[in-house]
Amino acid sequence: RRNPLGGDYGVDTCKQGYVWREAYSSNDHVCVLPETRTQARNDNNQAANRRNPSRFVYGPLTCQNGFVWREADDYDYICVTPATRRQTSADNAAASSRSRPGHTCISGYYTRNAYLNDFVCVTVGVKIQVIIDNLAATSRWIYG
Prior knowledge:
The chain has helices spanning 34-45, 82-93, 124-135; strands at 19-20, 23-25, 31-32, 68-69, 79-80, 99-100, 104-105, 110-111, 115-116, 121-122. It has 144 residues and is of the alpha+beta class. The strands form five sheets. Strands 1-3 form a two-stranded antiparallel sheet. A two-stranded parallel ribbon has the order 2-9. The chain has a two-stranded antiparallel ribbon with strand order 4-5.
């Protein structure tokens, strides 16, 4: 997902169609399709909505029933569906095949942007789901 020849962003340039995920920070340069970055943004925006108010096992960031942590990185506690977490894991594993040096994505993929500096390149559908999940974040925590 990274351009082996580099580009405007050096070794972080994604291949055509991929964008930086930016799920957890502006340093998340995993190349994903644009819809995956959108999904990450949505998940981030909804983070507070998905916390567990009872704070039992995992404290204030415990997800409501039916939701799990996205885990785009080790500090990503946005609550998403299990299918979204599986997709996030698959996108992370495929990150290097979807980007070009400089955190740009190859054709057909866009930066997920699940968090700041998330540059994993994902499909448009995944990116949109990230935006939705980020926007719904606080509604998915038990205590949010």
